[in-house]
Design a protein that fits this description.
This protein has about 220 residues and is of the alpha/beta class. It has 6 helices and 8 strands; from the N terminus they run ααβαβαββαβββαβ. Helices cover about 30% and strands about 20% of the residues.
Length: about 220
């Protein structure tokens, strides 16, 4: 959340206000989240991203994966397994908490800090691949880059996301994308992973009128 298997693009949900005035039940059905990626799709695109990383990194000898909590960490761990299967060598994987680097801290209730875990050999001179679930405004990735500056000096930083939903507010682009998903700002994209949610799926739904959608 970029070059996944070319799954069909999704139509955006529109006309909900009009439906609601005419038929509240129809509006409720329209607002229901629907899956756009299921477990096998997610596994397939992660395999593809792993092969793309190996190709672009010319073997992935110096690759370090850093997942952005929460679900980005699980995706990074899955990518590490796939990279190990391809390269037959261990791939360092860790996590990067960006909470204190967000530019919206004063706009939301206090957030619990997640863990930053950097592999033992560090990131200096390495190719760091940041991993996240959904790419949206770009502000989470900007915060991740700020957090990374305080940890080390990688030779390069790349970004892998499961879903890119568009609506960028900063000049940030993913290097590896599972699925480009055109959306409207009236829609939500929710990633569920077995490690956290008990199942693997990506859901597209209508944004509740009173919901404050977090920006990724």
């Amino acid at each position: 959340m970029d070059k996944f298997d070319k799954l069909d693009k999704l139509d955006t949900v529109d006309g909900i206000d009009r439906i609601d005035r005419q038929d509240p039940l129809a509006a409720s059905r329209a607002a229901e989240a629907r899956p756009v990626l299921e477990g096998p799709d997610i596994a397939r695109v992660l395999t593809r991203i792993a092969h793309e990383i190996v190709e672009r990194a010319k073997g992935a000898d110096d690759v370090v994966l850093l997942g952005i909590p929460t679900r980005g960490v699980f995706l990074a761990q899955r990518l590490a397994v796939k990279l190990e299967q391809i390269t037959e060598r261990g791939i360092p994987v860790g996590s990067l908490d960006i909470t204190m680097y967000r530019d919206d801290l004063r706009m939301h209730p206090p957030r619990a800090l997640a863990r930053t875990e950097i592999p033992g050999d560090g990131i200096d001179g390495r190719l760091v691949v940041l991993v996240d679930d959904v790419l949206f405004s770009g502000r989470t990735i900007r915060a991740a880059l700020d957090a990374l500056n305080g940890i080390g000096r990688p030779r390069a930083v790349q970004l892998a996301v499961l879903v890119d939903r568009g609506h960028r507010e900063l000049p940030i682009r993913a290097d590896y994308v599972g699925k480009n998903l055109p959306t409207s700002l009236r829609e939500t994209v929710k990633v569920q992973l077995a490690e956290e949610d008990g199942r693997d799926t990506v859901l597209l739904g209508a944004k509740p009128a009173t919901a404050d959608e977090s920006q990724h």
